[in-house]
Amino acid sequence: MCLAVPGRVMEIEERDGARMAVVDFGGVVKEVCLEYLPDLRVGEYAIVHVGFALQRLDEESARRTLELFAELGLLQEEFGDPWEAAAAAAAIANAEVQG
């Protein structure tokens, strides 16, 4: 299973020939490569997997997913690595969808 987490682009810069962004994942901020989405802009949301923005996402879908993670307490740094927590949340959500 692959995990992708929605995040909001806060800043964009060119670094060593690559388009990079600072992305906010519900309070957890990470650097992300934008090479697969060259027209993504500040303020937009994208699904990110292993440090790469892969697909543009509408704000409502992104917020719902991040709210679910927050409700489960999985994006708070005191619960450990937020990426591991997000993976656990995705597994729970996937199990609920599949019934």
TrEMBL record:
InterPro entries: Hydgase_assmbl_chp_CS, Hydrogenase_HupF/HypC. SUPFAM superfamilies: HupF/HypC-like. Gene3D superfamilies: 2.30.30.140. GO terms for molecular function: carbon dioxide binding; iron ion binding. One of its GO terms (biological process) is protein maturation. Signal peptide: none annotated. NCBIfam families: hypC_hupF. PANTHER family: HYDROGENASE MATURATION FACTOR HYBG. Belongs to the HupF/HypC family. This is Hydrogenase expression/formation protein HypC. It comes from Kitasatospora kifunensis. The lineage of its organism: Bacteria, Bacillati, Actinomycetota, Actinomycetes, Kitasatosporales.
